[in-house]
Design goal:
Elements: E1 2-12, E2 28-29, E3 32-43, E4 48-52, H1 59-66, E5 74-79, E6 82-83, H2 88-94, E7 95-98, H3 110-120, H4 125-138, H5 154-166, E8 172-176, H6 184-200, E9 204-207, H7 211-217, E10 220-225, E11 228-234, H8 235-239, H9 247-256
Parallel strand pairs: 4-9, 4-10, 7-8, 8-9
Antiparallel strand pairs: 1-3, 1-5, 2-3, 5-6, 10-11
Helix pairs in contact: 3-4, 3-5
The structure holds adenosine-5'-triphosphate.
The site of adenosine-5'-triphosphate has 12 residues, from strand 3 and helix 1.
Family: Belongs to the ABC transporter superfamily.
Domain ABC transporter: 2-251
InterPro entries: AAA+_ATPase (IPR003593), ABC_transporter-like_ATP-bd (IPR003439), ABC_transporter_ATP-binding (IPR050763), P-loop_NTPase (IPR027417)
Amino acid sequence: MIEVRGLAKRFRLPSHQGKPPQSHDPRGHDGWFHAVRDVSFRCAPGEVLGLLGPNGAGKTTTLRLLSTALKADAGSVVANGVDLLADPLAARQRIGFLSGTTGLYGRLTARENVEYFGRLHGMSAPYLRRRCDELFELLQMHQFVDKRADQLSTGMKQKCAIARAVVHEPQIVILDEPTTGLDVMSAKILLDFIASYKALRIPLIFSTHHLHEVDKLCDRVCIINHGKTAFHGSTEELRHLGGSADLYDAFVDVIKQGG
Ligand SMILES: Nc1ncnc2c1ncn2[C@@H]1O[C@H](COP(=O)(O)OP(=O)(O)OP(=O)(O)O)[C@@H](O)[C@H]1O
């Protein structure tokens, strides 16, 4: 179980920038931009949680706080009783994090990129080999696994980045917009891969703009608007929020209500 409570993060606005980045955005004041103001949600073993919200809502910042890539100003992230914000090393061992910004090593092959991260996590050679074979099979990477990363297509790179993020068999998986840039067949492989975590009873959190992915995969949803949790509940609760049983309508309602 991962439980996130009252997460907050602000960034200093450049001194020449009197106004917040979006002038209608209530988050910029006093020389700071409060990107994440109060985000709370939980994800239990066997659940997939979808993190939704308009562009700039604070999804990536929230996920970077969870992964300890950024230091939170307030709030807590507790996983199986361990306070991850207080113990970033424990967090990095427990969490597999796919970020939209971390590049692969271009001169290494896909296989070498994944193996390198496995070794950094202290995996033994036979265990690492077994785990890589399993991941390359699940993500259908065999055709390009020995190609240099700088020669891979966008979708191939994304699969490689995901394999790298979860090579150490983390207890919690966090993926920032994992299907971005993937064609239909690759997206299907990835969605099946995400779904497989339910059977493993490993909480998986992913951000997305695609409501059909939420419909297909998510047990639970957190909608962030202007840096705050505007909705948190089961996908079924969200679906019936507006009475139309349509996720698109419900999402729009939550955002229009100003969350
Ligand atoms: N390092 C930073 N310094 C200043 N502002 C930042 C920084 N990182 C993010 N922000 C601002 O915080 C807000 C939230 O950004 P974030 O990337 O978390 O949004 P998002 O919900 O992931 O958006 P998208 O759907 O477009 O990916 C944005 O207004 C962004 O400009």
